[in-house]
Each structure stands twice: as C-alpha cells, then as structure tokens.
Design brief:
Keywords (chain A): Chemotaxis
Largest sheet of chain A: 8 strands, antiparallel
Number of helices of chain A: 4
Order of helices and strands of chain A: HEEEEHHHEEEE
Protein name (chain A): Chemotaxis protein CheX
Structural class of chain A: alpha+beta
Strand order of the largest sheet of chain B: 2-1-3-4-5
CATH topology of chain A: Chemotaxis protein chec
CATH class of chain A: Alpha Beta
Helix content of chain A: 25-40%
Strand content of chain A: 25-35%
Protein name (chain B): Two-component system chemotaxis response regulator CheY
Pfam family, one (chain B): Response_reg
CATH topology of chain B: Rossmann fold
Keywords (chain B): Phosphoprotein
CATH architecture of chain B: 3-Layer(aba) Sandwich
Number of domains of chain B: 1
Number of domains of chain A: 1
Oligomer: heterodimer
Shape of chain B: globular
Number of strands of chain A: 8
Chain lengths: 149, 138
C-alpha cells in the first residue's frame, strides 16, 4: 500500500513536468483509489514497469487532442502518431525517474511501453490498489496511474 | 576498435555534438533549442549501441546522453565512449534524479548531469558549464 508521502512524490513530479516541459502548469488533483473495475485508459498510454525495492506499474494516459497541444507547446512541429506515442512514454518515464529522488536507486524503472488504444493491454498487478492522479491542463484531462505493491 | 580515436575538427572550427536519447521528441528538442554557436550536431542516436557505432565512425567532442534506453543504457555507453575518446565531454540528460545514479555516471566518465524535465535555458546553461569546465569557453 502506498503512503500519502509516496503519492505526493508523483503529484510533485507531475506538476513539475507540465510546468517545465509543457511550458504551462497543470492543475494536478488529489490522488484517489480506483474502487471498482480498471483505472481509466485513454487513447495513448505510456507505461513504466517498476522492479526492485517496489514492484508494479506507473502509467500516463492522455487523449490525442491534449498530446497535440503539448507537442505544439514544446515546439514540436511533427504532430504525428509516432511522436504522440513517444510523448506519453517520455512523460511516464520522466515522472517515474524523478521519483527515484525519494524512492532511491533501487526503484528500478523499465524503458516505456506505449499502447495506442487497446486498453485491455494495460494490466495492473493483482491484489494491488491503483491510485489515479487527475491532471487538468488547459481544457484537457489526463491521468497518471500508480499501482505499486 | 579505434581506441583513443582522434576527432577531426570541423572545418568551421565548431565542436562536434552527438545527441543520444531514445525519445525522438527529446532528440529533436535538444537539436532545435541548441543555442551554442560553437556546437554543431553531427549525429543522433536512439540508444547506446547505436551511439557507440556512430561514435566509432566519427567521434564527437561533446555528447548528450540519456540513461534509460533499450539495447544499451547510457551508463554503459558512457564507458564505451570514454574508452574510444578519453577527452570526450559527456552531459547526462536523464530523469533518474537520485544522487547514486548521478555519481555512478560521473565515475564512469560523464562530466555533467542535467535532470529531465529541463527548460531550454537549463540546457544551454548545462552545456556552457560543461564547455567552461573543459576550458572550451572561448
């Protein structure tokens, strides 16, 4: 089970990502537990597997319109499917990597796996609660999902 | 293997820069936002293995290096590049923000560390500091 302090690490990482990389702060809400069913999956999802000291997954999921605007804000001119996949992977990788500041070196992160559509491919570990961190940015919404044993 | 390979300077006197990151948008961002006239991008690579191959063909003077990459990670790549060209300047640009990782990269031969996410200004400052540290500050 994750602690409030541990979740705050991911909230701070998400806040910092949008303010720094996307050149516009996001409104990052309080994490909540998924009570029933699966956590939200949008059109593009970047997923990081966590091993070592903790095990589980962290994923960032967002819509095409949001990723399009993010790429534009980052100065990217090629608004392609490939770059949207790249972006969701990079967001998940950056926030997970930044978490090592608090979790330490043994919080081992994988290279990103990207899923476009096909939410059934996102599998969270059994018997582990998923926390959703809601992200509102401009008129768009996205989610960071943290599921760690 | 071309141990201690010597880089041929560019005819315009600029230093050769190689960008290594598995993210296309990060590679393009670094290339696009590069504000240092003395640096010229000669190669980009999507993982450590490709970076070593490109570096053997044409050693760069300066390298920006991600750590978490497929095929060969940035730490192993740094070791390889330093064996080929010991005086190469390497700036790690990574999301891995724990001190142990930064220290390990520096021990393997990297010269600086910039944490992702980064602003254009932070990138420029980190590269300028890297060049200053090596006495390439004009």
């Amino acid at each position: 089970m994750m602690t409030k302090v541990e979740l705050e690490t991911f909230v701070e990482g998400t806040t910092n990502y949008f303010a720094t990389a996307a050149n516009q702060p996001a409104s990052v809400g309080s994490p909540y537990i998924v009570q029933e069913g699966r956590p939200t999956v949008q059109e593009f999802t970047g997923l990081i597997s966590i091993a070592g000291k903790r095990r589980g997954i962290v994923y960032f999921t967002a819509s095409r319109p949001m990723l399009t605007v993010m790429l534009m804000r980052m100065g990217e001119t090629e608004l392609t499917q490939e770059n949207m996949c790249d972006l969701v992977g990079e967001v998940a990788n950056t926030i997970s990597g930044n978490a090592r500041r608090d979790f330490g070196k043994d919080f081992m992160i994988s290279v990103p796996t990207v899923v476009a559509g096909e939410p059934e491919k996102i599998v969270t570990p059994d018997n582990t609660r998923s926390f959703v961190i809601p992200i509102n940015w401009r008129s768009h919404s996205a989610q960071l999902v943290v599921c760690l044993e | 293997m071309a141990a201690n390979a010597k880089a041929e300077p560019l005819t315009n006197g600029k230093l050769k820069l190689m960008i290594c990151d598995d993210s296309n948008i990060i590679r393009r961002k670094i290339e696009r936002e590069l504000k240092i006239d003395r640096l010229q991008v000669i190669a980009t690579a999507a993982n450590g293995k490709l970076a070593v191959e490109a570096f053997r063909k044409e050693p760069a003077d300066v390298v920006t290096m991600d750590i978490t990459m497929p095929e060969m990670d940035g730490i192993e790549c740094v070791e390889n590049l330093v064996k080929i060209k010991p005086d190469v300047l390497i700036l790690i640009i990574s999301a891995l923000s724990d001190k142990a990782t930064a220290i390990e990269a520096l021990k393997k031969g990297a010269n600086g560390f910039l944490c992702k996410p980064f602003t254009d200004r932070q990138l420029t400052e980190a590269l300028e500091e890297l060049l200053r540290g090596a006495g390439n500050d004009d």
